[in-house]
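Project standup — Tuesday

K.O.: blocked on the structure for the chain from last sprint. Re-posting the sequence here as requested.
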Amino acid sequence: MRYRLLASVEFGGDTPTAVFDDVLVEYSVTWGAPERGPSYASGGQPADPDEISDARIVSIDGTPWANYARDYTPIMAAHTADAILDAIVDTQFDAMIEAAQEAHAEAESFRRERAREYA
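H.V.: unblocked you, prediction finished:
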């Protein structure tokens, strides 16, 4: 399942040199697993954290990324996208996971409701 988050990011420290507002990011989540205690066959397993993968910029300020990236060379566009995505994942990881959990819960609720209607 793919999820979306609207975010913003600034580069340049106290005096931002680049500001990207309203960045719509689409991504996947690999859900982690809780810590497992010891058993007869194992001494236990540590928790596996949630992971964000396959993050992509959909748009910036409502402009599709493909149109926005035309202002850059292909290499510069790729580096710009990577920098924006890295900054968003680094600073807004928890918000991304929370948005994914909410979307996942809504989808599950919808599936259950539809199943009851057609049962």
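K.O.: great, moving the ticket to review. The two ends are 25 Å apart (CA to CA). The chain has a mean pLDDT of 88.
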